[in-house]
Amino acid sequence: MKFTTQFLVPFFLALAPSALAASPSDLQAQIGHHIIFSYPGVEPPAHLLDLIKEGKVGGLILFGENVDDNLVTTIDNLQAVYKQSPYYSGSPLFIMTDQEGGEVRRLAGGPVESAKDIGQAANPKAAATQMGKDAASTLEKFKNNVNLAPVLDVYREAGDFADAYERSFSNSSRVVATCGSAFIAAQQSANIVASAKHFPGLGAAKAGENTDMQPVTIDLTLEELRKVDMEPYKNAIAAGVDMVMTSWAIYPALDPTYPSGLSKTIIQNELRDRLGFKGVTITDAIEAGSLTAFGDQATRGLLAAQAGVDLLLAAKRDVTQGEDIYNALLAALQDGSLDGDAFSAATQRILEVRKKLVLA
To answer: For domain 25-357, which CATH number applies: 3.40.50.620, 1.10.760.10, 3.20.20.300, 3.40.50.2000?
Structure first.
């Protein structure tokens, strides 16, 4: 009897291992891709270097306290440590920061103008294009490859949360969509990953309603959320945005229980299914004060992963925070409380974006 490959495909598919069946070392490396670490001061601690060697780190977020004249050398050394690891994936670690423009800049350089300045320009699209180029130039200079920008929040009132530091392009959804997509296209054409935030939108948060500090509820109708706050994400996705950061606010019209970054309904039903986003999702800072009702920080990381968020942002400047999240994911994959196939699909999304950095 003559066999052909078409008869063997189902057999091999049946044998294909899921994340749960992977060897311990494979599983270790897979989990590591999902966690963004942070550290205090300008000198990365030795323990962080050990974790990078062990394949437990997917990237790093930088804050002002991490920046000095030796930053480029520091990042080169971190990437070299990872490249020498047996768990090296063939692509560099994500090195990310908030280089939004205006007052929100971690690195010396552009964009100098705020998002609001850009939205009020005579030609907002052209101004936002230049803004994206300026951001990319600064990030490239300091060996960063991901910008946690642009902000796509549509502010409602002057001085409210999104407008207080002029982080929002406009109170017009159309202007935000135009500026955000232009920024994304310009920055990513220069090989710097963009991350649109904070899905589905923090524009209706009032002054002082900061999810970093306290629980925040955005009590808008589903119609308004979709027509105003989520509308700019259509343009961002059409522009090819690689990453979307979720909000930590609660949106009762979508999910009365869980904040966006812990809500499978919002991430899967709205962002992925309805809007068609196929890139990488990332949480806001896991240590946020808005999450006090959702357990310790490792538990929050696990809840976010179970909801379908790909990257978990451990931004406390404490290496053990990321390590604790890693251990929670490992235990959940081993006991089946975190779906192995869904987690593997998330890993693949992360690696697809990281491949772009190799080409760059």
So the answer is: 3.20.20.300
